[in-house]
Design brief:
Strand content: over 45%
CATH topology: Lipocalin
CATH architecture: Beta Barrel
InterPro entries: Lipid/polyisoprenoid-bd_YceI, TTHA0802/YceI-like_sf
Mean pLDDT: 91
Shape: globular
Number of helices: 2
Keywords: Signal
Structural class: mainly beta
Distance between the termini: 32 Å
Protein name: Polyisoprenoid-binding protein
Helix content: under 10%
Radius of gyration: 18 Å
């Protein structure tokens, strides 16, 4: 999987200039100004990143992609918002193809037996103008546990490229992989897994 990281902002800038104003002018950065409604995950720009401490030497990074799901966003009553996502475990990618295959195997995520990880929110608690604590049930490796994410609203507006109303968030959190039965090499590869999630959603209604 290869991307030209410069192509996306460059293309958006060109479109904005041709339209006579910058693309950023169409984006609101106050969560209360975003449109309420039902959204679908935009998988091309949604990533579930993770990192573990590898043998005490490096924070090793990986990512899951091809996420699907829905967001019911209520900006007037954020506590009633709901999130449901599904993450195909076999999408895992690191800088090592050999490790990618190992992670999909039965000593790690066992993608053949447990093909998807899911997160279903159960509560949303606003902590700031653009921030909230989202609690929900994470199912991974056949085990379901309550987990908490710190969520930050990035922006919302009409995407200059596809003309779809889009909203974006960043979420962070930490889970213990042993809680989900993924114990290979603990503690040499850390039990704590740091999550950093970039979520893009397109309005459906």
């Amino acid at each position: 999987m290869k991307y030209n990281l410069l192509s996306f902002p460059a293309a958006a800038l060109v479109v904005g200039l041709l339209a006579g104003n910058p693309a950023s002018a169409q984006v609101v950065t106050n969560a209360a100004q975003a449109q309420s409604g039902t959204y679908a995950v935009e998988p091309g720009h949604t990533q579930v990143g993770f990192s573990v401490l590898h043998f005490g030497f490096t924070n090793y990074l990986g990512v899951f992609s091809n996420v699907s799901g829905t967001l019911k966003l209520d900006t007037k009553n954020p506590a009633s918002s709901r999130l449901s996502v599904s993450i195909p475990v076999a999408s895992v990618q690191t800088t090592s193809a050999k490790l990618d295959d190992e992670l999909k195997g039965d000593q790690w995520f066992d993608a053949a037996k447990f093909p998807n990880a899911t997160f279903e929110s159960t509560s949303v608690r606003v902590t700031g103008r653009n921030d909230a604590i989202v609690t929900g049930n994470l199912t991974l490796h056949g085990v379901t546990k309550p987990e908490t994410l710190k969520v930050h609203f990035i922006g919302a507006g009409v995407n200059a490229l596809d003309k779809k109303y889009t909203t974006g968030f960043e979420a962070t959190g930490t889970i213990k992989r042993s809680d989900f039965g993924v114990k290979m090499y603990v503690p040499y590869v850390s039990d704590d897994v740091t999550l950093r999630i970039s979520g893009a959603f397109e309005r459906q209604d």
